[in-house]
Amino acid sequence: MFDQYRLLVPILIYVAYLHALKMDAVTQKAMTKKSNLKSGTKVSRGSKQWPPAKTVNSKRKQLSELNSTKLMSKVKPIIPPNFVDNLFKQTRFTKKEIVGLCKLFKKLVAIYGAESTSSVAAMSSVALITIPTQGFDRLMFREFLQNEFGITTEEILTDRIFCFFDQRNDGVIHEDEWITGLSVLLKGTQDERIKYTFTIYDLNNDGFITKEEIFSLLRNCLVKHPQDEDPDEGVRELVDIVLRKMDCDNDTKLSFEDFSTSVIKQSLLLEAFGQCLPSREISENFLNSINSVQ
């Protein structure tokens, strides 16, 4: 029995040696094929040479962008009829103007959204990928007021104007809010404009424009001299003059009745505490441009 096992040992070693040679040949062939693919050498007939993954991905991206561009060029923004009808009832715009404003809204949000994202990305080490497209945020809206309406007022007032438009109070001015707000700025009656400006100047929404609020609004409108002992003294004097002029019931604060009565008597007092309305010329030009929006 022992002699039989002793004869099997060389045979098993020989078989293992043959297997090893066969595996080496297969491995060498595979390595040669892989090397040829990398170097660009022609592969033997019957084998298939696949293009590099980078080339495939690049072509896929190009096709995807081309298809996306074609699709976007064919698709036009859909404006629901009930959306236009509701805004027609709520605002002073015609239906044609509302349709034009809807188209303009999407274009302006894309423009100011891209500018806002670029500005923030430039100040940050993290690249921003998405652009807000659902409406105007505070920074975008401030740029819109300045560029489209020439309202270059203090930040405290632009924030108040933003809050007037942002009826949902969610930090974004949506399409319907934008159109409703513009109705007051561009086509509002005298009463609507008086209510609007009073709301802007009533900083804490308590129904009164207080002496402190007037001081905050007028503080940056006067030129201050460094040599003055009290740079704010002139502002306080101006506040006292305004109150004597507009405070009809002498309670040291302006109610809506005080403000409205004063503005009706003297229309220049409508924006007494800072610009928050576009000029008549700018308003007319903006309205004329609405109908030409594609």
From TrEMBL:
The lineage of its organism: Eukaryota, Metazoa, Ecdysozoa, Arthropoda, Hexapoda. Keywords: Calcium, Metal-binding, Repeat. The keyword Disulfide bond does not apply. This is EF-hand domain-containing protein. The keyword S-adenosyl-L-methionine does not apply. SUPFAM superfamilies: EF-hand (SSF47473). Residues 37-47 have a biased composition (Polar residues). One of its GO terms (molecular function) is calcium ion binding. Gene3D superfamilies: EF-hand. It comes from Aphis glycines (Soybean aphid). Residues 153-188, 189-224 form the EF-hand domain. It holds the Pfam family EF-hand_7. Residues 36-61 are annotated as: Disordered.
